[in-house]
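Hey everyone, long-time lurker, first post.

I ran two proteins through the pipeline my lab uses and got sequence/structure pairs for each. Pasting them in order. The first:
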Amino acid sequence: MTAVNHVQTVSIKHQRYVHLQVVAMALLTGWILLNMTIPLATPQSFSTSPNQESERNANNDLKQLAQANNQFGFDLYKELGSQKGNLFYSPASISTALSMLFRGTDGETKQEMTGVLHIEMPDDRHHQANGELVQLLNTPSTGFELKVANRLWGQKDFVFMGDYLEDLQNQYQAPMGLVDFESDAEAAREQINAWVLDTTKNRIQELFPRGALDDATRLVLVNAIYFKADWATPFPKTATKDEPFHVANQQKIQVPMMNLEGKFGYAQIDDLQLLSLPYAGDETSMIVLLPDESIDMETFEAKVNSEQVAKWLEQIRPKQTKVALPKFTFDSEFVLTDTLQSLGMKRAFTDRAELNRMSTHDSLYVSTVVHKAFIEVNEEGTEAAAATGIVVGITSAPVVEQAVEFRADRPFLFMIRHNPSGLVLFAGRLDDPR
């Protein structure tokens, strides 16, 4: 099987390069964090009416789904974060795509994915909760743009289970498009990539590289997510100037640093500072976790887990704060095939995969899982996008491999969070903004 591979393209004002590594996935999908705005039923309402009972159960399932996604995110980071280098990705996109795949599994394959995704509720409630989350994220809001889209592309003459396609359409809003991988896989690849490009406002290009799909491909599942928001309080452009930024090995470099003073969510906890920068509308925010300069990132990340981060975030309070934050822009791409196998999702990638709730065909398996992400942070706000693709083929299908090597370093973690659900949409670590 392929190793986890990463390709990154980095750009920054004044031709400086930004190196951003993903936040220790304490910041991953599914936190129910501060300011949770999903209405919760009161104890008195538990027996008042079927509608209230149903609403209470739905809210509880959303919380449970978020917690499961959170734990999956930590597990994912334990694998990805063990190697040095820059990473940026959307845990929300990856978990949603895998849940769509999970709907088609059975037997040991299903058991493995249940464990990897930390699913503890019945299948129907898990998929319904995912559907509710998609609807919540796609609810129109003022101040920011957020779009989550799911899509399927299947071989035109291949037989898929009707209830599988119906559930993905109804729960995940993932319609099926018919293509002909057998006769022209390249045309199908271009069509899928064009949809991703359009859905992410031209930010995610070539999700599937040439050769990723071939005549053995039978189904492609894709999740795409796009986010754009202005800061609630923009950074004045006139205050941006080249300032020192401390990197590893006692080095100091000059980078374009944005500066702003105002009342923001802040906490100082031992050797850690936390900052919450709201976007317009206050439904989304960027949270920065900055360890003391005397603490190396590896030591800090060893402390990071879901329980600890939740405790840290509870201590954030409004405080007049002088903020200095680098501008940065970059994108990344990688293959999750080996990572997911290391987490325990092994059978799905073999000729013993049980995808019989997807199709009666007995030789289907997952050939690859690919992901790409983009982020830009400047004085006005943030733009971010990501897409995850899962390729299902018959057992002769090859696994795609890409490779590029790079290294980076410290010094702060950050995430972009959807406050009403607590879902972390994107996560990262800024190491060396050159």
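...and the second, right after it:
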Amino acid sequence: MKQVGSYRMALATRYWQAARLVIQHQIRPVEHLEPVGYLLAMCSEIALKAFLSEKGMSDDQLAKRLGHDLTKCLRQAIDKGLQLGEREAECILNMRDAHMNHFNRYGMPSINGKLKLGAVLLTDEVQSLECTAILIDRISEKPNVLRDRHQHPAPLSWPMPPAIEQPITLHNLDQINQRIRERLKVVELVNSRHP
């Protein structure tokens, strides 16, 4: 990878490592739901943008055309040749809504000083950790990128990604995205019943 892609992959890996440490040290599952969601969504966004910078997209193009939209980033990456399985693609797309509406950063929104409680579409944090690790492996094409911990003598004991049986296509991605939109409609319905 060129300098910018290599730096961004290192940054994505640091976000992943931070999420792994938080999950590993939680007293109970989803104890740190929002910070973990933020770390893994940022990991995905930065890794995808590292791939796209390697394919010739400038920072200006990444910002203006894609922003922080994980769907746009993933779609562009697959269009430019990223090989990824359906499970990983769905996991990344499923993180989009909480990433875009800033739930992971600020939590539930408020109206007139009162929290607007309701449902949020989320991805299982352990599954997200696995899927983002696979994303890093696929983009870096070097297993040591994720597994060699900077300035630590022992490498991280993390499984290698499974072989891709059928790489996802843009058509498959659209189908997954449609399923996620259906889930979001359910979330909106739940929220409309609890103002």
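Reply from user beta_strand_b:
Welcome! Quick read of the second one: The longest helix spans residues 170-193. The chain has a mean pLDDT of 90.
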